Structure formats: C-alpha cells, structure tokens
Amino acid sequence: MEQRAFYEHVLHPLMKRAASGKIALLFLDAAHFVMGMGFLGYVYGKVRRFVGTYSGRKRYNVLGALDYVTKKVHVVTNDKYISATEVCEMLHRLGETYAGKEIHLVLDNARYQKCELAQATAKELGIHLEYIPPYSPNLNLIERMWKFVKGSLRTRYYDDFGEFCKRIDDIIASTAVENKVLLDKLIGEKVQLFDDRELLWENTFCLCKGTQKIAI
Questions:
Q1: Distance (Å, whole) CA 3 – CA 108
Q2: Could you give the CA distance from residue 155 to residue 139 in angstroms, rounded to a whole number?
Q3: For residues 62 and 90, is the Cβ–Cβ distance under 8 A?
Q4: Angle 127-18-144 (CA atoms, 0-180°, nearest 5)?
Q5: Strand, helix or coil at 67?
Q6: pTM for this prediction
Q7: Domain spans of the chain, in order of start
Q8: 2-36+56-215 sits in which CATH class?
Q9: Phi, psi for 120 (deg, rounded to 5)
Q10: Which of 45, 66, 164, 200 could form a disulfide with 142 if both were Cys (CB 3.0 to 4.6 A apart)?
Q11: What is the pLDDT of residues 22-46, one digit of tens each?
Q12: String of DSSP letters for 74-91
C-alpha cells in the first residue's frame, strides 16, 4: 500500500504538473556498465564455437537524471564509483539547467543519495528530493531507460574501453532525439504497482491470493 500511496499522493500529481510545464520532474539513479559482461548475443549451431570476450573488469559508472517530459538524460560519469560527491555535482548541474524553475527529483534511498551532504546541497539549491518507498524500483522510471540502454548495448562486442563508453553515451543521448518516441511509450503516467505483494523478510516477498501467501 505504501507504493500506491506514494504514486497517488506524490508521484502522479508531480507528473501532471510537469506535463503542464509548471515544474521540472526528474528521476535519478546510477547504472554500472562492466565491459565484456552481459553484452554478448547468442550463436546457435551444431558445431561448437568459441567466441572471444574481454577479460578485464573495467566499469563505466553513469549517474543519470531523466527529465520526465523531454526524456533528456543529464549524466555524471566515471570509471571508479558513484558517491555523494557525484550526487552533489548532479544537483548543481540540475540547479543551473533548470534555474528559475521548481525542481523535483525522484530517487531511491541509497546512502550516498540520502546522506546529510546530499540533502543539504539539495536544500541549498531549492531542489525537492522525493524518496521512493523501500523495495520500489518500479517507481523510479529511469530504470526503464537503463533497460533500454543495456538492450541497445548488447548488439556487439567491445574490446576498447573508450569505444565502449562512447557507445553508452550515444545511446543515452538518443533518448531525447531519435529515440524519444520510444521513450515516451516506455515512460509515462502508467506505473506498475505491487499491491498484492507483502514483505516476508529481507529481499523475500509473497504474492497474496485470498488467504494464501505464496513466496516469490
């Protein structure tokens, strides 16, 4: 019920206001792309074949803020890790980009996003942080955009880290241009809610059917 309450009383009203141009509504989240991991397709055949893959562990970290209306994604990137420093950098960028406009940022409860530094920076810049309920990634619509990026990235093999990073940047940049129509279909007012699920214990939920509870 917590998810539905957040959607009905916080998120959906913000979507309406953003669509009318009254506010800027963005969804914040980080994605971590490891070169050579999970980006290859499948080869079917009767003969066994060996396909080369990158053996390293180079990672491209992207902290993104997706504009609900325009589908433009603002990014802060590095090849180390995302911390409160990157979150504050993003907040300053958004403050400059949407200067003079009321800004609402939807994000999860990760420590580096809910720490005192991040909250103080947001308050200083006049940015409203809207934290989604625990275990509710379905309410952070940028997750759908990350799925789109990863799906587009899997079409080929990369052995050059610079090329790998550029390809990710190009896909993200496309969300507000040639792929905006697709992103408009993926990201809108419709949000999947899980009213029939209850938390049994950490990371374990059950599906409620009448008086029955089935672990999932």
A1: 13
A2: 28
A3: no
A4: 90
A5: strand
A6: 0.84
A7: 2-36+56-215
A8: alpha beta
A9: -65, -40
A10: 66
A11: 999 999 999 999 987 654 555 566 7
A12: EEEEESS---HHHHHHHH
